[in-house]
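Protein in question reproduced for absentees:

***
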Amino acid sequence: MDAARSAVERRRRRLGAFAGAAACCAGLAVGQLVTVFVRPEAGPVTAVGSAVVDLTPTVVKEWAVRSFGTADKAVLIAGIVLLLAGVAVAAGLLALRSRAAGTALAFGFGLVGALAALSRPGASALDAVPSLAGGAAAAGTLFLLVTALVRPPPEGWPEGPRGAWALDRRGFGRLLVSVLAGSAAAGLAGRRLGAYGSAGATASRAGVRLPPPAVPAPPVPAGAAPKVPGLSPFLTPNPVFYRVDTALVVPRVDVDGWSLRIHGEGVTRPLTLGFRELLARPLVEHDITLACVSNEVGGPYVGNARWLGVPLAGLLREAGVRPPSAGGPADQLMARSVDGMTLGTPVETVMDGRDALLAVGMNGEPLPFDHGFPVRMVVPGLYGYVSACKWLRELRLTTFAAYDAYWVRRGWAEQAPVKTQSRIDTPRPFASTAAGPVNVAGVAWAQHRGIGRVEVRVDGGPWQEARLAAADGVDTWRQWVWRWDARPGSHTLEVRATDGTGAVQTGTRQGVLPDGATGWHTVTVRVA
């Protein structure tokens, strides 16, 4: 009797775990379906993931960026789903002993999602609904499955927990299949309706016809892009342009409902502009290199593009803004995105004559959704976290003393001019090459100062000056090539740059916190 009872209990626990997992599927599917009628950022997994991003220490975030690159968001979402699955299995096992406790645990995770959704910038009470609906669906499904799982024990069996030792596997199986089929249907409906909901934004972007610039960028100079295999293209194609942000769901904005508000301290004529009004203004075109402060020495988070937009300084002057040097009361331009991200840019920098833009185009097309459609900021010479707000919806004039933007509250510097950097693109680290002439080539950047010289050395020897490609202004990176007479053995290559002011790139190694990495990029290669 004990052996039979033990076998039944093992099967019972196994089926209880299945019940928890199935309840999890039902909860996620219902939550996703309800999200369609609220907003994408309110989805249970997205809301929890966004809250985790906000609460994660900066050093952990930087480790994630280094370790997973642009896949860090997918890794985070996978981790949340795995954690949710573990909690669901635990809820299923707990429900075998106490259906009330198990279903409460299942609903509790929905409650966590609701609280996370309500903590997001710009959240309303409706944002809690998808998580609450998902939690209720998970709890209800678990209750039904566990109820169907048990039946009274045969006559003569000792009482088990709650008097339930025998299993109604047939009834449980039928209900389990129904639950999984219903979850699949709800999930598919959520995806289809979500795609339909975002189709308006997709059609909106497809319908944008960018007017020709009143001030076009000059052609890229001949000789700016040496034809060296392995060297980055001078203009980075949009699909491979780096993306580093906190958005787990890329905002998809319909231009018909978009507007930009400019207001705050020192604004004598507040402005509210629609997208069509912005396009009707004289547009200018500039080649500008952007760099992320999370870019390690030699890292990939830098790219060069041709941007089309409205000069930002002109708009601020139209709103009556004066820089601090002219007596203006505000020293910070706080930019806010449609998903609530805030970035703070020095007003003095934006209005000092550099080509700061409200960009609407990138490399000859409307901004991609990943890169801020319909409008983003581009300010040459500053790291992205203090200047490159994507999906822009508000510009507020304030002071650094009065307001700390998102990244500043997490330990990053208020002021973040781009540091002089250089990178070896080819040969790649640990590459093998044949002895003889070898092209060592790469890029160097010091936006708004320009690059005046690049030097390479081998195995700690004397610095050798590389040949610089033609310059396309001071706001873009500059490509370089050095011809190396490679001899057999293992060798270490280093590169450093000198900016347009004559300042030499420091070799002192520093991590990305709090205002960008420093040091010389080093590559080890084997020559056969």
Q: What stands out?
A: The chain has ten helices and 21 strands.
